[in-house]
# Entry
Amino acid sequence: MPRQIVLLRGVNLGARNRISMPELRDALETAGFDDVRTYLQSGNVVVSSRTSADRVTRTVERLIADRFGLEIEVVVRTRAQLAGVVRRNPLAELAVDPKRYQVSFLAAKLAPEVVRKLEAAAVAPEAFVVSGCEVFAWHPKGVARSKLWSLLAGRGLGVTATARNWTTVTKLLEFAGD
# Structure
C-alpha cells in the first residue's frame, strides 16, 4: 500500500497546539489509515493509504479539528514525492549542516511576487531555491535573526507551508520505506 508523509504545521511548539502523538496515531488508525508511525513530537506522520494526498490532507485536518479541537494546516507528500525532494537537493554542495538546512513543503506553488519577496529578504551567506512545491533554504547562521526564515515560517506565502530540517526530511523518507 502506498506510503504518505503527513506534515502538520505548528504543533507542539511550546504550550500551543498540543497533540499527543500516541493519541494522533490512534485517531488515524481509527480513521482507516494503516502502518501509522510518528517521528518526533512535531507533527511528522507516515501512513499507508490508497487515498489521494488531497483527501488525506482534508481527512487529517478534519480529524484533528474533531478529536483535538485544533485548526491545524496539513501538507502531504507521497513517498515518491519525498524521495524526489531528497534527490533534487539543490543546495547539497552548500548546505553542510542538516540542522540549518530547511525544506518548506508547500500546498501549492508560490506566486512570482512572493518569490521576489523571498529574494529581497535573503542575506548572504543565506541561500534558497524554489523547486516546484518546495523551498530549500540554507541558514548557515541560524534562523533566529533571518528575515528569509521569518517569511518562510510566517503565513505570508499565500499557501499553506510547513518546514522541516534536512535531518527530519531524510529520516521521514527512511520511515516511509521502499
